[in-house]
Each structure stands twice: as structure tokens, then as C-alpha cells.
Specification:
By secondary structure, the chain is mainly alpha-helical. The protein has 2 helices and 2 strands, in the order H-E-E-H. Helices cover about 30% and strands about 5% of the residues. It has a two-stranded antiparallel ribbon with strand order 1-2.
């Protein structure tokens, strides 16, 4: 989480850097324990999704 925070803070602080997007190809791209995966964790019946810890950090740096 520290690396993600530092990266996002640098983008926010430096006017010469352009923001970006956090994207991947979906649930088949990652395993459930991959640290880069921000795909929500679904329950067995696919009715309830839980955000991954990275989402808390990403939401702190939303574009204004």
C-alpha cells in the first residue's frame, strides 16, 4: 500500500505529471491474491461484492 500511496501522491503533487487509469482485463486476468488486482471480491452466489484494500487508497486520490 505504501508504494501505491507514494505513486498517487507524486502524481497529485507534480503538475508536470499526467494522471492515469488503474485498469486490467477483469477477473480472469488475476488470481484472487494478486496485489495489483482491484477487481471486487464476490461472494459465492455473485450477489455481494467487497472492495479490495487498494480501493480505499485509490478513492483518496480521486480526480477533482
Amino acid at each position: 500500500m505504501t508504494v501505491l500511496h507514494n505513486f498517487l501522491q507524486k502524481i497529485e503533487d507534480d503538475q508536470n505529471l499526467v494522471g492515469g487509469a488503474y485498469w486490467a482485463t477483469g477477473p480472469r486476468w488475476f488470481t484472487t491474491d494478486d496485489r495489483l488486482n482491484v477487481e471486487p471480491i464476490w461472494n459465492v452466489t455473485k450477489t455481494v461484492a467487497t472492495d479490495r484494500p487498494q480501493m480505499v487508497k485509490l478513492e483518496q486520490f480521486k480526480s477533482h
